[in-house]
Design brief:
Two copies of one chain form a homodimer.
Chain A lengths: L12 E5 L3 H10 L5 E6 L3 E3 L4 H5 L9 E3 H4 L6 E5 L1 E6 L4 E6 L2 E6 L2 E4 L3 E3 L5 H6 L6 H18 L5 H8 E5 L3 H21 L10 E5 L11 H14 L2 E3 L4 E4 L3 E4 L4 E3 L2 E4 L3 E3 L16 E3 L4 E2 L2 E6 L4 E3 L11 H19 L13 E7 L2 E6 L3 E4 L1 H14 L3 H17 L16 H5 L20
Parallel strand pairs in A: 1-2, 1-9, 2-5, 9-21, 11-12, 11-17, 12-13, 19-22
Antiparallel strand pairs in A: 3-4, 6-7, 7-8, 10-18, 14-15, 15-16, 20-21, 23-24, 24-25
Helix pairs in contact in A: 1-9, 5-6
Chain lengths: 457, 457
Amino acid sequence: MTPLKTSTGRRPVVLIIGAGFGGLFAARSLAGTAVDVILIDRHNYHTFTPLLYQVATAGLDPSHIAYPVRAIFRRDKNVRFLMGEVEAIDTAAREVTVRANGDAHRLQYDALIAAAGSVTHYFGLEQTARHAFGLKELSEAVILRNHILKQFEQAAWSDDPAYREASTTLVVVGGGPTGIETAGALLELSRHVLQNEFTGATGSLRPRVILVEASDRLLASYPVRLQEAARRQLQSLGVEVILGEPVEQADGERLLLKGGQIIPTRTVIWSAGVRASPLAAMLGVPLTPAGRVPVRPTLEVAGLPDVYAVGDMAYVQDGQGDRYPMNIPVAEQQGTLAARNILRRLASRPQESFRYHDRGIMATIGRQRAVAWLYNRVPLSGYPAWLTWLVMHLLWLMGFRNRISVLVNWVWNYLTYDRSARIILEHGGLRRRAEHDALLPPERTVAPEHELEIARR
Amino acid sequence: MTPLKTSTGRRPVVLIIGAGFGGLFAARSLAGTAVDVILIDRHNYHTFTPLLYQVATAGLDPSHIAYPVRAIFRRDKNVRFLMGEVEAIDTAAREVTVRANGDAHRLQYDALIAAAGSVTHYFGLEQTARHAFGLKELSEAVILRNHILKQFEQAAWSDDPAYREASTTLVVVGGGPTGIETAGALLELSRHVLQNEFTGATGSLRPRVILVEASDRLLASYPVRLQEAARRQLQSLGVEVILGEPVEQADGERLLLKGGQIIPTRTVIWSAGVRASPLAAMLGVPLTPAGRVPVRPTLEVAGLPDVYAVGDMAYVQDGQGDRYPMNIPVAEQQGTLAARNILRRLASRPQESFRYHDRGIMATIGRQRAVAWLYNRVPLSGYPAWLTWLVMHLLWLMGFRNRISVLVNWVWNYLTYDRSARIILEHGGLRRRAEHDALLPPERTVAPEHELEIARR
């Protein structure tokens, strides 16, 4: 319980890695206090991950669920944001190396909060990892949206029923909340929006959405009654639910299940598991099988007194068998506690232990379909659960403008079955159009009298 | 004036290349008539190009100005959209080759409307073409937005004043409407939004926006009084205006002007010229110096009786010295006329000649700043011109939802000086996160009693 070193003789520096929910809440708790906060993230925005699947299914724009970190801390003089990728952590020298502008920058800290979150876990299925789509990052949501829309556009060219079936069969692996929400949204996009627009000379398309779960029930952490309600609601929407079937492999053209079933599809969305961010390994301590950093109940990393880990990255060993889910409320509450424990240490006061205040869990399935398990006591399903989900998420979303915009989108989508964000926007290949234009064929030329080359509107 | 051949014995097929304003208005005019329309575009959306600069400056989301083509023609049974890249046009065989799904598809037509628009023209400045940013496509707007925001994030790491100056100096080349609007929006983004968020330990940034024009006046097609008003309004906003200075070269680190002046900048936006789409060359007829297709006043391509060209691609030779600007109203009116002339020919009625109904021109400069030249008679500048611009563009935007969304954004941006869309969203390098995760360092492992690897919220 040594006080923090203030190496420069100035205010102690708290370095936070990750601007997800854990890092954000830590930085907020430290805003306006007597420390200097440096917040690092690979992106210049915080991602509201619970709605990633709505970006992937063209219901929301990326910026609806991404909020610039600098805007969040605009008025907090002691919080400094820097965009960059952490390359190394030297806990002995209290130094983090961050790559930005192509250079490696070394940053000193007095206390470190590691809050880098989690990544998709494919459980060693390497081929599947190459061909399936993850849904943990904003860029992945846009990539998936582009991919799905392109599948339908390509199907419109084809007279081959097998090709068209593989193009318009969308499979979600994993029956947790993310898998369920994604499957429901995919059904609504493909059946209520795209199917109507792809009639014509090629014949109509018959999109299918299939949810595959390895265990014999959906939503493992919910009571059985709500698990059943979720399955019924998914099926009433039109989603085909396959239970008790682990995935053998996906190869980009078909999905093979352990039981032998083969589903022709080019779109497999992997929501079956997560593991801690690879950044956890940079701390140099032994990790759990899912790559998480074992921490004390005070969220200190064992053996590293100035380092805290929070959120999906952290595994709390409290000796009582308690396990906290890798979810947002845990990350938020842990981020807040880590910040407070650092301030307590500065004031030579004792560290506090983490206690999770669980307000319950909920998942939406589609219009007027949802399940909720409030305070782990009140079960809701159908319309009441859906309304609760809607209001909670609107209140939760950061920033007034985003909330209004999202509301406008949701009301519009609800009334019209429209998905205005369904644009295929790619900019990976050509840096700009000029590179394409450089490949023009030579032209024969005839000169008219006068010609305005300047663009005018 | 031969009637169209209906090769299959079915309804005549009108093939339209390009879903810009020309192609869209042509397809709309043919919707519900006795022809089958095939509309081809590289993208699955129509781009509302007048607001591209607002996406590039983080004021609007991409989907605000992009509307799925299939949604536009959802109710028109005789209009079929296909996404693909045109590779070849065989006017003798009446056949267009389109690449999609990696295959080349050949489409027969009875009449063809070429409406592929224009691309950025660098007038042979090859190095500049590689380093400057064009602003003709939605992907270019997103690339430019990402680039500008990254420049500021990188400047935040640097203690070198020269590096920071080059990062935060934004130069627009070309004093036409696009250049002026872009310069004004860049000034508002960099000075009113970003500058406030980049204070801190590195010292504050001093963004500059410079507009460079080769001739000695802005807005060549406006009356002198409005040219002067535009310059004054830009300067009152804070934009540095350099007139009479052609560009020598941009190399990615600095911009060199013909007069010898060197501006250190990594951000040069090229709005100085456009040329016809390279697709024009596929018609196999002699083109104008700017690559445009010479057409008769009826919009028929000389020597190709079943081919029409409209919009930026087309150069109308009417023998009276009339030159139509490369702008949206001309494209819309020509698209409509080409469609009508095809229907007239089918009915063995005479072709009509193009006459441009000019309702005037306008350009916005920033909040409460604009110039307008209504019906080439009524000059407006300042607040009245800005209000006119605002109302006209809201009415003009396609689709109810986009209009509401854009309005919400504009009101919010106006009241708060906020730019919520300022996220750096790239997905070019890694196809998905898994490819990154595959590069993880090996981990040491310690097994805790129980661990949930399934994502739960």
